[in-house]
Amino acid sequence: MGLIAEYDTQLTQLLDTLQAVPTMTVRHDEIYFTPDRSVKWIFWACGEQQSEFEAALDTDPTVEQYRVTAEIPHQRLYSVTLVGSPEDFTLSVFNELDIQILDATHSYDGTTVRVRCPSRETLSKLRETIEAKYGKFVVRRLYREETSDMSRYSVTEPQREALLCALEHGHFEVPRRSDLRTVASKLGISDQALSSRLRRGTATLLRDTLAQKTTNEE
To answer: What are the entry keywords (predicted)?
Structure first.
């Protein structure tokens, strides 16, 4: 069973934007390193002041560039390249410790994150890293995840949605019925974001099934 932790912190990324438009919130979707060592953040901007939010992004010192990849009433899906290199972010620590971000919500007065940790030791290491970087790490809730057919596979909801959509549209068939771009358009995300979700989701499923079976047999 995994250890689920919910904690509050204060990120510097997008802080100027969210303080300029305090009625808006940002809902985390995906964050990853690109081959050219950029940091790409995919998120939903939620609220009615979308134009003001985008204007604030234009002058935000933590944003290198951005584009809107999908839009529904009062929500836009952004693909943002953040200023800085991988060493400037704590994402590598999540990867090293096998800590999975389940969801995160950002607003002008702080960030709330829910993660799945392998152990209390890894959570303690995460706390040390976050406190050193951002100065705040306050645990809201801490509980053991119940074992069930749904919870034993630790793919995130966006990864699950991407895998099932790709399967449904024949992306894994030979020959393929749908290419990456077609599946991405069905989900309203970029090709790169879909590729990342499929890659990470597949790796997670392999760890949870074949790799786990091999470990148990040993």
So the answer is: Transcription, Transcription regulation
